[in-house]
Amino acid sequence: MVNGIQWHYVDEGAPEGTVILFLHGLPEGWYSWHYVLPRVDHKYRLIAIDMKGYGRSDPRYGDYNWHHVAQEIGGLRGNATSHAYYCSTSCWEDWVLVYGALGPDLVGFFSFVASAGAGP
Question: Does the pLDDT of residue 2 top 70, yes or no?
């Protein structure tokens, strides 16, 4: 439980490693990263979450403004004292959440991953 919310997440890799937080797009969940996680160096701490109200994470009504959600996401870093890396799919608001409210001093790197989808 972080910030009063029961978050569902998958946590892999080195517990003391630099955090890479994987944020899914809409209408996805942490599972959208299930092929990626095994391929990322496990010297990092890899955290793939179900965003608030998705999958098995608690919904909370009335507090979805981007400043508030960004602070909640920042709480998922745990007691990591250094910056974290963020990886996101399909939703530009994920970038705004992390960069806009948490500040660049907490963000070591941001990656936006997009896919053209499968062909016929």
Answer: yes
